[in-house]
Write a structure and sequence with these properties.
With 497 residues, the chain is an all-alpha fold. The chain contains 18 helices and no strands. The longest helix has 44 residues, at 39-82. It is globular. Belongs to the multi antimicrobial extrusion (MATE) (TC 2.A.66.1) family.
Length: 497
């Protein structure tokens, strides 16, 4: 690679991919191991290289996740302006549908580990096989989910939600069912692209889909009068547009001629083993996503459930929006870590981990300060109800603490995905979230009558405990051993071997 490319950390797409090194190989490891340079000089040069690589991945990924989450927030905004019950129904519907979102996103992270490490190790032909296997497995998993959401009304009533809201939420969920299979294709495709540091095309596609959704939702709600169901139908259509455009890009672009070689019967081999690997990833991600969504469901059991649901759903929408920034750094951390481990660069993997964590934390602090400054006004984006606005303002300090913790925790989870620690993190999540966080929240919220503040305090406690454990484990990691584990993992999953 020429000197200009070594300086910028970019690959030359005009030359065959097999003759190039991936971006993770360029410069960083040699700088960090150059003993002739003073320590702080190595750190400075390493930071310059890493920041270029990090932001080239993180910024487009942040945009993709912000836009995708914006599709959900847009749906809630339109629902909120239709009526209070519609907002509550959309909030519960989105919370319940997060089961599918979390499951598909989690199972897709297995592709993230394998594709990232395979790309770093220059085993390009396996990326397309991993993509196809994951899509098949996730599509099969979507079938029982379809049955579950078909009977969402009795399930919501059984959980104690108000019948009128449960009925509206169940209809809303029914309109979202095709999204399950859109998720199956979208998340695996995103991980396939991210592993190769290709993120911008997904950003352009997602932006176009969001604009389309806003336009079509306005037409269906205010012109056609379809109400809440119009919001659900358009949201599903928008996701199908993303999947179609992304699939066409992967299958027709010369950029992936070495990593996508077409459909192959090899993708049907070892599906059960791939399912087990994906299941560990799914449990890790689902436990994290469900944790915050359970907060919304518990709010329906509090005194004055409509006010609690509306205020918490608005706060959770803001939290989810800021969380997308951290998820962008999560994706960057996962790609950088897996690429470096696959390329046998342990010092680069370590350096990238802490650099990404630090940058993400800075962003989250700025976001938390912005929330506190606008605490009395931010709720009017979603609703004109002054009582809801006051409740949201009271919850903003809890929201600010959550945002800061979310600046660290997702990045460490991304490192875990890059290293293949999903099963271990799943156990950590169970203990911190469901043994500590939710029980403490219920005791404070119901027994001590702190209401929504008590539930949220428990959630913060669980997240803080999980973050501290992941920080300690990451600090104690032997990165040379992680390189060896990555080599063994790739050998095990390489069909030719």
């Amino acid at each position: 690679m020429d000197a200009a490319n070594e300086t910028t950390g970019r690959t030359d797409l005009r030359r065959p991919l097999v003759d190039q090194k991936p971006p993770s190989d360029v410069g960083l490891e040699s700088v960090l191991t150059e003993r002739s340079l003073p320590y702080w000089r190595r750190m400075y040069l390493g930071a310059c290289i890493e920041m270029k690589l990090l932001f080239s991945l993180a910024l487009p990924a942040i945009f993709v996740y912000v836009v995708n989450n914006g599709m959900s927030i847009t749906a809630r905004i339109f629902a909120g302006h239709i009526g209070g019950k519609e907002l509550a129904a959309a909030s519960i519907g989105n919370s319940c549908f997060s089961l599918a979102y979390g499951l598909m996103l989690g199972m897709g992270s297995a592709v993230e580990t394998l594709c990232g490490q395979a790309y770093g190790a220059h085993r390009y032909d396996m990326l397309g096989i991993y993509l196809q296997r994951a899509t098949i497995v996730l599509t099969l998993v979507g079938l029982p989910l379809t049955l579950l959401y078909t009977f969402s009304y009795p399930i919501l009533v059984l959980l104690g939600e108000p019948k009128s809201v449960s009925h509206m939420a169940s209809l809303y969920i029914a309109g979202l069912i095709p999204q399950i299979f859109a998720y199956a294709v979208n998340f695996t495709s995103q991980k396939f692209l991210q592993a190769q540091s290709v993120v911008r095309p997904s950003a352009y596609i997602s932006a176009a889909a969001l604009l389309l959704q806003i336009l079509l939702t306005w037409i269906t709600v205010y012109v056609m009068g379809l109400g809440l169901m119009g919001v659900a139908y358009v949201r599903t259509i928008s996701w199908c547009v993303i999947v179609g455009a992304q699939t066409l890009y992967i299958t027709n672009s010369q950029r992936f001629r070495h990593t996508w070689t077409g459909l192959s019967w090899r993708s049907f081999q070892g599906l059960w083993s791939f399912f087990k690997l994906s299941a560990g990833s799914a449990i890790m991600i689902c436990l994290e996503i469900w944790y915050s969504q359970i907060l919304v469901l518990l709010a329906g059991l509090l005194t004055n459930p409509d006010l609690s649901l509306n205020s918490l759903s608005i706060c959770m929408s803001i939290s989810a929006f800021t969380f997308m920034v951290s998820v962008g750094f999560n994706a960057a951390a996962s790609v950088r870590t897996s690429n470096e481990l696959g390329a046998e660069n342990p010092k680069s993997a370590l350096f990238s981990t802490w650099m990404t964590t630090f940058v993400s934390l800075l962003f989250s602090v700025v976001e938390a300060l912005a929330v506190m400054v606008s605490r009395d006004y931010v709720s009017y984006i979603f609703t004109a109800d002054a009582e809801v606005a006051k409740a949201v303002s009271d919850l903003c300090p809890f929201l600010a603490v959550t945002i800061i913790l979310n600046g660290i925790q997702p990045v460490l989870s991304g490192v875990a995905v890059g290293c293949g620690w999903q099963t271990f993190v799943a156990y950590v999540n169970i203990g911190c979230y469901y043994v500590v966080g939710i029980p403490v929240g219920c005791i404070l919220g119901f027994t001590f009558d702190f209401q929504a503040k008590g539930i949220w305090t428990g959630m913060i406690g669980g997240t803080l405990m999980q973050t501290l454990i992941l920080l300690y484990v990451t600090y104690q990691t032997d990165w040379d051993k992680e390189v060896e584990k990555a080599k063994k993992r790739l050998d095990m999953w390489d069909d030719k071997k």
